[in-house]
Write a structure and sequence with these properties.
Helices cover 16% and strands 42% of the residues. The chain has 86 residues and is of the alpha+beta class.
Length: 86
């Protein structure tokens, strides 16, 4: 009988709390309403909300350039995808 399994790879993540400290650390800007934010990277802008997770996915190399890969996701999506290590 087939069973469902979920892949749990170790990752580094931090939950965004809306603080100025985190906004400076990750180059996050407030979109003006105080509810939505933008996580600004060198090559893209990623939407973010307070309580969402900032997930570090590692680095990759493209045309000799090292890129840092990030993702943002809601708390619900994060908890469905990842499990905290003890």
């Amino acid at each position: 009988m087939l069973h469902k399994y979920r892949k749990i790879d170790p990752i580094k993540a931090e939950q965004f709390d809306g603080s100025l400290e985190m906004m400076k650390k990750y180059h996050i800007t407030d979109d003006g309403s105080g509810e939505t934010y933008t996580f600004r990277l060198d090559h893209e802008c990623i939407p973010l909300e307070r309580g969402w997770w900032i997930v570090y996915l590692g680095t990759s190399e493209v045309y000799g350039l090292t890129l840092v890969n990030w993702e943002t996701m809601s708390d619900e999506e994060f908890n469905q995808t990842y499990e905290r290590e003890n």
